[in-house]
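Re: the request from the purification team.
They wanted to know what the chain is likely to look like in 3D before they choose a buffer screen. I agreed to run a prediction and write the result into the notebook, where they can find it.
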Amino acid sequence: MQTTTDEALIGRIAAGDKLAMQVLYARHHVRAYRFILRLVGDPTKAEDLVSEVFLDVWRQAHKFEARSQVTTWLLAIARFKALSALRRRKEEGLDDEEAAAIEDTADDPEAAVQKKDKSEILRKCLTALSPDHREIIDLVYYHEKSVEEVAEIVGIPENTVKTRMFYARKKLSELLKAAGVDRGWP
């Protein structure tokens, strides 16, 4: 089952296969959690929203039309859930420090130590971007989504995604340069 495609898993989930749901959850819950956490800034709320996302997947799997990748569909659901939660709690402020404190488990310990200083600077610079720009950077660089997929997830035209990406990278470059980082990773 571990080699089954996401699309096939969705088909099996639509048929009520609980094991397929467990496999899909295992593959994508961390990605969904990190994405939601960057938007809501509250780890507990992010965990609750991830549960809601996968509950929606269980209930709506039969409606998946495969017009996009499963990860794009999942992140679109996650974005909707996160934005809805933010609308419900407008009076509360977001804590970007908590989102910035989550370590990237994709790196081995040695690589993590080497990148720590630049990583901290980068996270601080990312939090200085506007929410719209931060969201675009997050989807493109952390979730490896194409411009077309980002446009679908966020619900804006592709040219708007490109414009936001341009200005986000420009601002990020200025912030990194001001922080003493002129080049990419070693």
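For the purification team: DSSP finds nine helices and no strands in the chain.
Please add any questions underneath this entry.
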